[in-house]
Automatic annotation (TrEMBL):
It is found in: Chromosome; Nucleus. Keywords: Cell cycle, Cell division, Chromosome, DNA condensation, Mitosis, Nucleus, Signal. Residues 108-260 form the Condensin complex subunit 1 N-terminal domain. Residues 494-535 are annotated as: Disordered. Pfam families: Cnd1, Cnd1_N. This is Condensin complex subunit 1.
Length: 1163
């Protein structure tokens, strides 16, 4: 009977199905048929262990490949007839082994045939074996089944090994076309082999392999090549292959007890292959979810918790960390079971491991909270246990906020942020989270601070107090609500005479001696009060609700106070060196303003100064562009249903509000920002029209057009005019009529801002001053303001802006100033009105003279620049000359730039203050006379104006400066008026820029003002010296110690300014290193400076000496000084500096350990 006849018979009907199936299986495996009839079967020698142990994938096997195609044809025919032929024909087995051993030497077509032949034959053999095992009639054929499986198993093992070794140039999309084809073919062959192994692993191999070692060896032939296949990253990207590999490994663990082998292989994969940790986590997740086998994961976690890594090993801890994190995302509950073991990694010195445990805890908490949200009916059953688990994990996370490594601290904050981002709420812990986040804002690591800000943002966005009163968190509003709730609750509290006294303030809670005793309380009155209150008590539910309401408001206020503290700290981080941190701080301030945090406005105003910052963050976002986005969101965003006019009014009022209580620095930064906003077309013409409308309402009694709003409107208009001068042209008549008219004369602040705005108007191309499209001459209006007599000191600010405007808009400002200066002088010296003070006239005159002198210099420099520009244009385009301009260009061409520059210098040095025809020259001696005789001319404002005028005139001519410098320094030293001393400091700073050689020898007088009695003078001096040193205008000659002492100044602004100075100085050619010895000598010899303060200053300065070469050289110099110290105090100072410098060597260590006695012994 042939196989074909059996197959035909098997299809004849269901009655013969089972019998024929058994018969077919026995025939294919050459088993006894019964009735004494047998097919011949000859056992061949094949030792699986011998072949398995001898195989080496790297070995080149010597195989005859001359007749490969014939061999392939022969073995294919044999196996197609019957897979069990591999046990009958010894030559067939040898041919298959030779083909598999020479797999890499075959061409692609032959490889494909060999791989398919082995995989399909093995798959068929496994199916046949499964049929026999299922029928139970296999006891007589165990050896034969085992032999077939061993032979095909070895062939599959060899084939998979070579498939895993096959190379494919490039990776992913970078592969060539041919390489991609070969890769797809390889993947198909691997899939076929893995599918055959899956069929094999589904068998009950314990029935075939009697001993465990035999079975394990057979299974390892499949598992080890699978793990080798995983070593190629691209292989793991194939979803189908990955699924087959995971399925086979899972079968080997769950059905064949190969967990220990797989565990070792997983550990090896984690140790040596950086791309495998996430996939190993997925493998374990597959085992847990699809095969319900968590034991391997738990054993693996226990083994990982006991690992000890070499201090130089970074790959191992990193791989384990990635594995734990991925596993916590997929199977968090299993890690929770082994948390006691996993938590041991927190004691590991490696930061990656600690980070992974922290992130794992966060993922576990999120999973528990999600499960509660998805299954609310099961909350009551396990509520207490789950709350304990969550509290334990959150406590662990909070502990890591104090970890010594900043990355671990950062990971803790990120874990908390992730938890707060989930839909679940943890109201009881949010207050603690906020306090920890605020505390972390003071961390020395910028990474920690950035993430702390993100956590605060998340806590603010998801705050739990929006249910009853909306999202706003205004402190004053919530405090009022709390008072109302408490008063409502107190209505139901018993009242006695004692409590009334307490409420009236007659009793003190702080003094324990005044606490009520039994004799102080009238018990009868108390009983009556309690009975009366009890009769008025509402039901129990109402009382509970009132108490809960009070507690709710108290919690809200605590939360708001924590946010306000964080907002204050975030404002100080706006000027961090890390740009990303600055961006985070800006976003938080914008968010806190949206939620009504009251002190966020201070931070938003400080944000203005970021407009000057250059560069971009790591993500490419520049600070200034992000500032524009923030201010657009804050002040230039209207409700979606607002009309165009409503939007314009809203934007105008918002912009005006920015000017309220703004300092000069705030206004300068605001002007720069508004120009950027206008250029970005975020401020439209409708807004400008509203601003002009508000300005035209100056003097109106309507509350919405009060003085502050009108001032703000003209300030904003002036700022926008810097970007588009045509804005001034629109309201030029209003400027002259209101700002420079009668209203402006009574409101000098309005007049000042109007003059400033007028100075930005576009001039006509003609040379007359009446070309403005107005009903009057602007210069005449400005002249009238300057000739105004007033005792209001605000006039001086107006005069400064008016003179500046004249020099900008007048075609001949020198003539205009000469004319009104003569008139002003006549007013001062021919004052007949008893109600008008001559001292005021002189004060105004001196102020005008000084500012005209400064503006004249600036005007001459502009003329010089204009001359050079025209000359360069003439030289560049000589062919463009026309007849009208030919003579002018010829004149320019005949004059060199040096000649023109020399002429300007001569005018400044010899003409302005010494020329016979110069008007300013007449005032120089007069100003000097007033300044020299301060007792005779004792009016305070007159002296201030005179000294200020003298300082400005000294900036014009070096001759005049040299003549009057001793007088000026004397005034700075001996004047009792701090304003005069401050002006002298500023004047001396300007002179240092103009005539460096004259002032350089007198800088000591300037540094003395750092210790002035008045804080304003100290601050002015520090700012001036800071500018001069950083700009390179003065040479530092040992005075840096005076600057360094300001680091310990009690005034925080001076201390901060000094820190900023040294931070900037450190960037300039090792300036701190070069001057460190002089600084230290000055600090050490200063008897007024405490030792603690000196040590803090030294520690701060040493931080800027970061080059090892400089540290070494400085240490060697100080070591020499250490051996020459004459007193113990000197020795201690030097020893402290040496200990503060990071560089150390044996000589320094021995010298410090020896102490001062060693030096004393030398003496």
């Amino acid at each position: 009977m042939t196989v074909l006849s059996i197959l035909v018979v098997s299809c004849m009907g269901d009655l013969y199905m089972q019998a024929n199936t058994i018969l077919c299986a026995k025939l294919r495996l050459c088993l006894p048929l019964g009735s004494g009839e047998y097919y011949s079967y000859k056992t061949m020698d094949f030792s699986l262990s011998t072949y398995y142990n001898a195989f080496d994938v790297e070995k080149q096997y010597d195989v005859d490949l001359s007749n490969v195609n014939d061999t392939l044809q022969r073995v294919t025919n044999s196996l197609a007839h019957s897979p069990d032929a591999i046990c009958q024909d010894e030559q067939l087995l040898e041919d298959l082994i030779d083909l598999s051993h020479s797999f890499l030497s075959l061409d692609s077509k032959q490889r494909k045939q060999v791989a398919y032949l082995i995989s399909s034959s093995f798959n068929n053999a496994c199916h046949n074996t499964k049929q026999l095992l299922d029928m139970g009639d296999f006891m007589d054929s165990i050896d034969i089944l085992k032999a077939v499986l061993e032979r095909f198993g070895y062939l599959i093992f060899v084939t998979l090994s070579f498939l895993g070794k096959e190379e494919f140039p490039g990776s992913g999309n970078s592969r060539s076309k041919q390489s991609s084809v070969n890769w797809k073919t390889n993947c198909t062959e691997v899939e076929d082999a893995l599918a055959a192994i899956t069929t094999c692993l589904q068998l009950d191999l314990s029935k075939i392999f009697v001993t465990t070692p035999e079975k394990n060896q057979f299974l390892e032939m499949f598992i080890r090549p699978i793990f080798h296949l995983m070593e190629l990253p691209d292989r793991m990207k194939s979803i189908s292959i990955k699924a087959l590999m995971f399925r086979n490994i899972a079968f080997s663990v769950t059905r064949h007890s190969l967990a220990s082998v797989v565990q070792n292989l997983i550990m090896q994969a984690l140790t040596y292959y950086p791309h495998l940790p996430p996939y190993m986590a997925e493998l374990l997740f597959t085992l847990n979810s699809q095969f319900d086998y968590p034991s391997l994961t738990e054993d693996l976690l226990r083994e990982i918790s006991q690992l000890e890594f070499n201090s130089n090993d970074s790959n191992g801890p990193k791989a384990v960390s990635e594995f734990l994190i991925k596993l916590s995302e997929l199977s968090p509950r299993i890690i929770l079971k082994q948390m006691s073991s996993t938590a041991q990694l927190l004691d590991n010195s490696n930061q990656s491991l600690r980070c992974s445990v922290v992130e794992t805890c966060g993922n576990i908490v999120i999973d528990i909270l999600k499960s509660e949200a998805q299954n609310p009916e099961s909350i009551d059953e396990h509520m207490e246990h789950q709350n304990m688990q969550i509290d334990g994990l959150l406590n662990l996370l909070e502990e890591r906020f104090l970890d010594q490594n900043p990355f671990v601290r950062t990971k803790s904050i990120q874990a908390i942020t992730k938890i707060c981002s989930s839909s679940a709420r943890i109201p009881k812990r949010r207050q603690g989270f906020m306090l920890i986040a605020v505390r972390s804002l003071g961390d020395k690591s910028t990474l920690v601070r950035r993430n702390a800000i993100k956590l605060m943002c998340k806590l603010l966005l998801t705050h739990p107090f929006s249910a009853t009163h909306g999202t706003q968190l205004t402190h004053s509003v919530w405090s009022e609500r709390l008072k109302e709730a408490e008063s409502e609750l107190n209505k139901y509290m018993p009242v006695t005479s004692y409590t009334k006294k307490k409420e009236d303030g007659k009793d003190s809670d702080d003094d324990n001696e005044n606490s009520p005793s039994d004799s102080d309380i009238d018990h009868e009155e108390l009983n009556e009060s309690m009975m009366e209150q009890e009769s008025r008590l509402p039901d129990k539910a109402t009382l509970i609700k009132l108490k809960l309401t009070v507690q709710y408001y108290q919690d809200a206020i605590e939360f708001i106070e924590a946010i306000e503290e964080g907002t204050s700290v975030a404002s100080s981080l706006l000027f961090s060196k890390n740009r990303n941190e600055v961006l985070e701080a800006m976003d938080f301030l914008v968010l806190s303003d949206a939620y009504g945090i009251e002190n966020s406005q201070k931070g938003i105003r400080r944000m203005l100064h970021l407009v000057w910052m250059k560069g971009s963050s790591d993500e490419g976002k520049s600070i200034s562009s992000h500032l524009i986005d923030c201010y657009k969101q804050l002040f230039l965003t209207a409700p979606p249903n607002a009309s165009a006019s409503q939007t314009a009014i809203l934007f105008a009022k918002n912009l005006i509000g920015l000017t309220f209580s703004a300092s000069v620095a705030d206004l300068a930064s605001l002007e720069k920002l508004l120009c950027l906003l206008y250029e970005a077309k975020l401020i439209h013409n409708e807004v400008i029209n509203v601003l002009w409308h508000i300005y035209n309402k100056a003097g109106s009694q309507e509350p919405e057009y009060n003085e502050a709003n009108v001032h703000g409107a003209i300030i904003i208009l002036g700022m926008l005019s810097s970007s588009d001068a045509s804005i001034v042209q629109r309201g030029l008549d209003s400027l002259l009529r209101i700002g420079l008219g009668d209203i402006g004369k009574h409101d000098l602040q309005l007049c000042k801002f109007s003059c400033s705005t007028l100075s930005k108007v576009i001039k006509s191309n003609t040379n007359t001053g009446s070309d403005f499209n107005t009903s009057g001459d602007p210069v005449a209006y400005l002249r009238n303001i300057l000739l105004l007599y007033t005792e209001n000191t605000e006039w001086y600010e107006v005069a400064e802006q008016a003179i500046t405007a004249i020099f900008k808009i007048s075609p001949d400002p020198i003539k205009v100033c000469t004319d009104f200066l003569k008139v002003k002088a006549e007013q001062a010296f021919e004052c007949d009105n008893e109600q008008q003070s001559q001292a005021i006239f002189l004060s105004q005159l001196f102020f005008i003279v000084g500012h005209i002198g400064i503006q004249t210099i600036e005007y001459l420099e502009k003329l010089e620049t204009l001359f050079k520009k025209k000359k360069h244009e003439a030289e560049r385009k000589p062919e463009d000359k026309n007849e009208e301009g030919e003579n002018e260009l010829e004149m320019i061409g005949g004059t060199s730039e040096d000649d023109f520059t020399d002429a300007v210098i001569y005018i400044k040095e010899r003409e302005l203050l010494f020329g016979d025809n110069s008007l300013l020259a007449r005032f120089g001696p007069l100003v000097k006379e007033v300044c020299s005789n301060n007792h005779m001319y004792s009016d305070e404002m007159l002296q201030r104006s005179a000294v200020l005028c003298l300082g400005k005139l000294m900036c014009i001519s070096s001759k005049f400066c040299e003549e009057n410098l001793p007088l000026f320094i004397t005034i700075m030293e001996k004047s009792s008026d701090p304003v005069i001393r401050s002006n002298c400091v500023l004047g001396l700073g300007d002179m240092a820029v103009c005539f460096n050689n004259l002032v350089d020898e007198n800088t000591d007088f300037l540094y003395r003002r750092l210790t002035d009695d008045n804080i304003m003078v100290q601050r002015t001096c520090l700012m001036t010296v800071t500018f001069l040193i950083l700009a390179g205008q003065v040479k530092v000659k040992g005075q840096l110690s005076s600057m360094a002492k300001c680091l310990e100044h009690p005034d925080q602004s001076i201390s901060d300014m000094c820190r900023l100075f040294f931070s900037e100085l450190a960037t300039k050619d090792n300036a701190i290193y070069n001057g460190f010895i002089d600084i230290f000598s000055g600090l050490s010899s200063d008897a007024e400076l405490s030792k603690d303060s000196m040590k803090r200053i030294i520690k701060f300065l040493v931080g800027f000496i970061d080059k090892e070469k400089h540290q070494k050289q400085l240490s060697e110099k100080l070591l020499v000084r250490l051996t020459k110290c004459q007193t113990e105090s000197q020795w201690e100072d030097v020893a402290y500096v040496l200990s503060a410098i990071p560089y150390k060597n044996d000589s320094i260590t021995q010298a410090i350990e020896g102490g001062y006695k060693m030096v004393q012994a030398r003496d």
